[in-house]
């Protein structure tokens, strides 16, 4: 893949850079000058000059847009300020290095080495430092004098907007810097990311390696081997380096340690396995992002040298231990995860007390390694008032009394907003859990706490909006202990909007509070998953319930006598009384046989039925009563369904019929009301209905149908004809319909934007492809062709059939094709993306080459192409060398 690099230079206003420089001179540099008896008056003069420049900058930053002289002054001043900052940062960093190394050695009681470090000379002689400082002053003073000859006003306060690139895409307009620098940037990489030239880029401060145009298909980006090392060696002035999402980066070179000015390093979602020890030389580093580095298994031992580190994100890594020296980073403000060590001399929970500035999100994991129970109280979580999200995690829910003591002493601040507890091994929760003083908690998760037989009084949490409970295998009954009281005057869960119970293996009863109108007055979403023994009275009066999901709760419809009457699930749940219910999902309830006779909730808009094979498909009258139903999805359910009556649901917009094993036809009801109802239909998806033979769709009945997908329907022999009368159709997929006799005899719908056709094996219908009128589809932007039959037909026909509007072409499962003829592709001047998927025998691409407009080529499981195209080898390379983005997957992998 071609790796482009986006450089963001000077995105912050220059005035802010000046302020930072003045601050640095006033602190680190001033202290250094005093300690070495250098000329401090020079620093004062430099500060005054910078402040003088600062007075003009707000006005200059706006006027440079329209005044060429001001722009030239700003460009030159920017470079001068950067040079001055580089020099001053060199001094400050060298002084910091000596201090850190001395402190580090002192802690190891290596006295002789400490003296050696403290007495070692600076990398620059002191006289040279003074001389260079004088030159910086004179250069900046020159700009201050020039400012008086420009149409600039002092002290102007104006709002200047600058576009800032996101980390998902970078537009050319967001790249700041000289035009020649931008061009050097674009030329820096050739088509497969190998470094061509770094001339003109040596002074870059911010480097975000991202493709400029290619933010599609796959989230991973790629840098060729060797490029990263060359970048780090060459770009010594970097302050910001982001390589996030470059999935092929597995090793971070030792040269990272030479970026002494670096403040921000983002390696998130790369495949690095470890950080080199040299990274601990980045004494100025403030932010280190390693989130979702799924292979990262260790951190360097000397992490304590990163004295300026404020943010360390290691969420989603494979780390099992953290170096003890993490505890030296007492200025950390963000630490996503703290791992308690089981080693005798490893990182202990008590070390958490040192992080008094932590804020935001914190996860403490491997709490089973707390052997000294006093460590939990020493962690002092209660005083960390800026932590808003806390996760307390044990590795496995083993019955252990010590867990209860640890959790008791890990009481957080009442400022907490989100709390998660995983694999807690105690038999009950501590008193603080569910205490009303935690009035700021809005989200709570309790996961796999298998030995707790009852829930804490969570109903007392006045601000709680989301509650997720899963894996509590010892809970058999939920009642007043959960609500936090049983008085009719007490209102539990006043703010709760989302409630989810999952994997509650022994839960049988859900009891109510007598005399109360509703235990959950604001609940809008309720989910019950894998609660196989749950039966009896469920929460019934839920005035705000909008969505109900029920999955694998096979006894939910049981009578109290123990006899299962599978038809009563809806009645037991009082579903028809949920007047606000808009979404209902029923999963894996194979014994469910019928809907309630008095219908579904009147407000219901979406109904999903999956894995309910015995559920009887309702009558026409029942369907007609569903006045608000817009989405219906039936999957592996309703074995009684043989013919679906289109038009029976008054306002149906989306219909999905998947794996309906006895469905034979989809037909339109012969009545006026049905024709009116079909006016709403927009989306029809039919998949793996092996008995289905026909679908009836008339253009006048379905004018708003824009999406039609039929796949793997073995017996289907015809489609609605003439299909071109479906003038509103924009997306059409007809895949793996082996008995289809004809398609589009009078042409395809003229407004199609996306088309997918073909069978993985065999002939694809008897209609000549020339009758489809592909060349007339001027809106078609994506075409997917499945199987070799249609590919061969397109290559056989001498006249180009595909429209010039095509931007994406996908060829998949053309397993017998060995060579692609390019005559049918050359006229596609708008083609940008070409995907070749599972073309096992494909050896070569067209001898004419691919259209020059292609900017992306993806090849997945095309093994015969590997030798020709991998690593720019093989005689065929020239055919694709012009393509900026090439992605190759030789086998399926995560």
TrEMBL record:
Organism superkingdom: Eukaryota
Please provide the Gene Ontology terms (biological process) for this protein.
Answer: defense response
Its keywords, alphabetically, are: Leucine-rich repeat, Nucleotide-binding, Plant defense, Repeat, Signal
Q: Which PANTHER family match?
A: LEUCINE-RICH REPEAT-CONTAINING PROTEIN 57, RX N-TERMINAL DOMAIN-CONTAINING PROTEIN
The family database entries (Gene3D superfamilies) matched by this protein are listed as:
1.20.5.4130, Ribonuclease Inhibitor (3.80.10.10)
Record has Transmembrane as a keyword: no
Q: Give the taxonomic lineage as stored in the record.
A: Eukaryota, Viridiplantae, Streptophyta, Embryophyta, Tracheophyta
GO MF terms, alphabetically ordered: nucleotide binding
Domain R13L1/DRL21-like LRR repeat region per the UniProt entry, residue ranges: 349-472
Q: Which SUPFAM superfamilies match?
A: L domain-like
Boundaries of every Disease resistance N-terminal domain copy: 17-103
Q: What is this protein called?
A: Uncharacterized protein
Q: Where does the signal peptide begin and end?
A: 1-20
